[in-house]
Amino acid sequence: MEAFLFYFCGAVMLLGAIGVVIARSAVMGACSLILSFLGSAGLFAALSAPFLAVLQVLVYAGAIMVLFLFVIMMLEGPVMETETSRPKLWTTLMALVPAVIILAAVAIWLPAGRLPGFTSSVPEDFGQPMPVAAKLLGDYVFAFEIISVVMLVAMVGALALARSKRNQPWT
Amino acid sequence: MLAIVLEATAKIGFMFALIMGLVPVLIWAERKGSAFIQDRTGPNRAGVLGIRLAGLIHPIADVIKLLAKEDVVPAMRHKFLYALAPMLVMIVAMSTYAVIPFGDYIMIGGEKIELIVADLEVGMLFVLAIASLGTYGVALGGWASNSKYTFLGSLRATASMISYEITMGLAIMGLFLIFGTFRLTDIVAGQGDLIWGWLPKWGIIVQPLGFLLFIASVYAETNRTPFDMSERDSEIVAGYHTEYSSLKFALFFMAEYAHMVVAAALIAVLFFGGYQIPWLPRPVLEANAGAMLTGGLIAGGIVLGIIAWAFFRRARREKGWYNDAREREPGFLGSVCVVLALVNLGALGLQPWAISELGASLYATFAQIGAFVIKVAFFSWLFIWVRWTVPSFRYDQVMRLGWQIMLPAGLVNLLVTALWVFAVHQP
User: Fold this and answer.
1) Same structural domain, B94 and B203
2) Which residue on chain A is closest to B135 by alpha carbon?
3) Quick check: A66 contacting B, CB < 8 Å?
4) Can you list the alpha helix ranges (DSSP code H) found in A23-171?
5) Is B132's CB within 8 Å of A57's CB?
6) A19 CA to chain B: closest CA distance, Å?
7) Residues 6+ apart with CB under 8 A from A90
8) Are residues B271 and B299 in the same domain?
9) Deepest in the core among B39, B112, B167, B204, taking most CB within 10 A?
10) What is the ipTM of this complex?
């Protein structure tokens, strides 16, 4: 069961990642990326880390990608089928040859006919809300606070840059 | 293994039946309720052999119409995403129910079965995560239709959903602090307590501001009036689903009501004690099951008798009004009431006052499930009530309310709650 979940979520992630690369329209690319994130959330869930899985969906698939999509849709508008040219042979080769080489390298490096087994190397309460909170707000509280300050500065900076005119009000 | 599968199937089936049963009723309530509020009659035509049930047959006619309708699609659509969007909306609306507890537990064959599909440690965060995915169906549907109206509708919907998701999360953070858990079953169990011995410890009592913020942001998330700018008829036709017809439109339409039911269930679970009946905790229910059941059956019989009498009076009065099948309706409904009343009184023959322990436990479970369903139905009705009595906001007003009023209010609420919880737990 565990192995099945791992390979299934891994396949979903890979499919999503390939989709991002080969998608014609940016919107389809963003959708493929969401699929990939959902796959990684599934991996966390299979590791019995529900908190991380849910956060993966909530933050990456839910919040960040919605903003991505929002911006792409705003810029692209309701237009599609703009790109009609077929990819040239040599660009396809340029993409395929390194991919095959890497795949072959991985296949040779792995012990023949056997993939790495599953060992329970993660602690029992890995990825539950309590341990994550203890790490974030206990062990690494200083880094956590510093990051929030950096984010705040970035937000204010983005607002300042987005103002088109000098005398425009801040709202 | 088989038992687990059966158990899960039964629970999923119950939740599915609750949603799919409430959706047509809500559509009916929306039409009849709006008619009542605007002093109209509302739907009263569709009927089977003269039985019209005050318009309740109309949803069935709707389903037949939508199934039989031609599926008109825009030629320049994005084929894949256009077909995917309505499914996404429906999937998101349905999957939230997995973590909502609809009852305490039920004893079957000496085994205690929790009445929740998936009792996740992070239940409420799961709800938020699924809700954040709900944006995609709307956004992609509007974009893939390749029309200006749908595009504007989906941009508006996305903007309001992004803005209010944050407030929605903040509004319930205070609740998590007070009950110390994300698990919805624990939150509901915690609301069974009493403060000072008489006030139920419901979410609305301990977090009144959180409740207001949550209900407002939930209305914005479901795109209902007063936050309905994504489908405002006078500005952008029907918004993001303008270009959808037939069953694809039906999916959007049903998903809206399914979203309402899930929002109502969340409000009930988080702020109104879920399946808890105030001042009647489970032990009291079980101890007095016999007396309550007997009283309930007698009262039910009497009430049904009075209703039947009213129907029969109406049947006599309306004789000769229509001269067609419609005249059968009051008489038929009156007979149904008489039969039900007789069943109620006949059930007294089973000696409900001497109910066994197992029966008392079952009675308590079903009473609590009933309380949950009543709460969900009431808050679903509240959505309709608000839609037809409150004028809607302009787009900029929605944005200002979300970012400049509700978000700071949510932060203040969280801060005050955190300080209070800190003061109580660490003197």
Assistant:
1) yes
2) A66
3) yes
4) 26-46, 50-55, 65-76, 89-109, 129-134, 141-162
5) yes
6) 13
7) none
8) no
9) B167
10) 0.75
Strands, E assignment, B144-225: 194-195, 199-200
Indicate whether B266 and B299 sit together in one domain: no
In chain B, positions 177-196, which contact chain A (CB-CB < 8 Å)? 182
- Average pLDDT of chain B to the nearest whole number: 83
Q: With an 8 Å Cβ cutoff, are B76 and A81 in contact? A: yes
Q: Are B139 and B150 in contact (CB under 8 A)?
A: no
List the alpha helices (DSSP H) in B242-288: 246-271, 282-287
The answer to whether position B21 is within a domain reads no
Residues of A in contact with B137 (CB under 8 A): none
Distances from the Cα of B147 to the Cαs of A80, B93, B313, B314, B327, in angstroms? Answer: 11, 25, 55, 52, 49
What phi and psi values does residue B71 have, to the nearest 5 degrees?
-90, 95
10 Å Cβ neighbour count for B224? 21
Say whether residue A48 is in contact with chain B using an 8 A CB cutoff.
Answer: no
Query: Confidence class of residue A167 from pLDDT cuts 50, 70 and 90?
Result: low
Beta strands in B91-231 (DSSP E): 105-108, 111-114, 194-195, 199-200
Domain check: are B150 and B204 in the same one?
yes
Residue A30 has which token pair? 């963003």
Which two structure tokens, joined as six digits, stand for B62? Answer: 């709707």
Distance from CA of B127 to the nearest CA of A (A): 9
**Among A63, A69, A78, beta carbon nearest to B151:** A78
Domain that holds residue B302: 289-355
